[in-house]
Amino acid sequence: MIAFSHYDITLLLQAMVRTVVLSLGGGILGIAGAIILTALRLSEIRVMIPLRVLAVVYVQTIRRIPFIVTLYIVFFCTGMMGVDVSATVVAIGSIGLIAAAYLCEILHGGVKTVPVEQVEAALVLNLPLWARWRHVIGPQAMSAVVPPAVGYLVLFIKDTALASQIGVVELSQAGVILTNRGLPSTQVFCVVLLLYFAISYPLTCLSRLLEKRIAVH
Fold first, then answer.
1. Shortest CA distance to 67 belongs to which of 93, 85, 86?
2. How many degrees, rounded to 5, is the angle at CA 92 between CA 88 and CA 97?
3. pLDDT of 210 strictly over 90
């Protein structure tokens, strides 16, 4: 069993924090973008048709592009435009762009699971828009949205490892750095595995708790 030095432990902890920042920042951007895209796709206002088409094209296109390609596109485009941002910010933005597309598809599918009859009944009762979403559409859609959405976000925590391709030192890259310094690769990456588990397991527990609460309601 190897003994990690103070430098090794500091590097791993900093990389773990950076992985959490990438996942959390990208996830928040993705959720915000997904809500906007879903609202555009569900809009029935005639003047919004061009935006609705753009939202559909965006979702269908981004979901078919590998994350690493999106990462490189954002990285090189920011450089060409002279935008001075760190690699971490570029990675968060890239994660947000692709997460928005996937989460939009999940949200859109969840809303479509709500029976049309119930939506029509809410309209007959003259419920305002916010009340329809708060009491009729939202609660039923969430039961179909939460499990796949959280599952996707857990998977995306692992995909943040690709951010190392543009110079971000996250967990997997920290493991590579330590092995290049001569530490045993098996033991180093076992520690990296445990740290990834420590990040993703609480999110899985939160998903189960939300599912139970939704089921009760």
1. 93
2. 145
3. no
Residues in contact with 209: Cβ distance below 8 Å, sequence separation at least 6, in sequence order: none
Q: How deeply is 9 buried, as exposed, middle or buried, from its count of CB atoms within 10 A (0-12, 13-18, 19+)?
A: exposed
Tell me, rounded to whole angstroms, the distance of Cα 100 from its chain centroid.
7
In our burial notation (b when 16+ CB lie closer than 10 A, e otherwise), range 170-207 reads bbbbbbbbbbeeebeeeebbebbeebbeebbeeeeeeb
Amino acid (one-letter) located at 177: I
Question: Which residues 6+ apart lie within 8 Å of 153 measured at CB?
Answer: 23, 27, 99, 203
Rounded to the nearest 10 degrees, the angle between the axes of helix 185-216 and helix 171-180 is: 170
Q: What is the model's pLDDT at position 56? A: 92
Q: What is the mean pLDDT of residues 121-142?
A: 76
- Tell me whether residue 116 is exposed, middle or buried, using C-beta atoms within 10 angstroms of its C-beta: 0 to 12, 13 to 18, 19 or more: exposed
